[in-house]
Amino acid sequence: MNLFPSALDELVEKFASLPGIGFKSAQRLAFYILSLPEEEARSFAGAIITARENVRPCRVCQNLTDAEECAICRSTTRDEGVICVVASPKDVAAIERGHEYNGKYHVLHGVISPMNHIGPDDIKVKELVDRVAGGTVREVIMAMNPDTEGETTAKYISRLLKPFGVLVTRLAYGIPVGASLEFADDATLMRALEGRQEI
């Protein structure tokens, strides 16, 4: 016997299919949506549909935008000679929160992951190579997660870009600000020592 109507069960299933949402959280979200006034619920559903219809990759950097080019690519105050390569649009948001980087971006929309059957042709590598081939780029910063897939992707792209004579760098690895050395793992300590800087 079904405890709830099938429409409610389907709503719970849809929420549960989202990353990081378990069954109990999905159920809470579904009940919350049902408790909204009809106008708010329709507005919520409309926002999802509007975003799905209007948000698309920027034709230059592949970041998400609702125009032909994103605001960062359209900006005339940012350094076009430096491209920061990230795996997802969320990474752009994270770097922008720091208010320190003033170059452009390139969003790969994934990383090379043979275990998940994701190869170079499944992410936006060709578009990056085409941008670098244009001749205006001086440096490409690889800003991938420091895991196996991120390292593999960074090394693969680095080899592709070598013939163009651009400087390819990666983000420094090491001890996070405010962390204690005694809790750092061996790999983190090794990377921190390798990336040490003069003060």
Keywords:
four-stranded parallel sheet, alpha/beta, globular, Helicase, Ruva Protein, domain 3, Dna Topoisomerase Vi A Subunit, Chain: A, domain 2, 6 strands, 199 residues, 2 domains, two-stranded antiparallel ribbon
Describe what this molecule looks like in 3D.
The protein is α/β, with parallel strands linked by helices. The chain folds into two domains: 6-54, RecR Domain 1 (Helicase, Ruva Protein, domain 3, Orthogonal Bundle); 77-170, Dna Topoisomerase Vi A Subunit, Chain: A, domain 2 (3-Layer(aba) Sandwich). It contains eight helices and six strands; from the N terminus they run αααββαβαβαβαβα. The strands form two sheets. The protein has a four-stranded parallel beta sheet with strand order 4-3-5-6. The protein has a two-stranded antiparallel ribbon with strand order 1-2. Strand 5 (139-142), helix 7 (148-161) and strand 6 form a beta-alpha-beta unit. The termini are far apart.
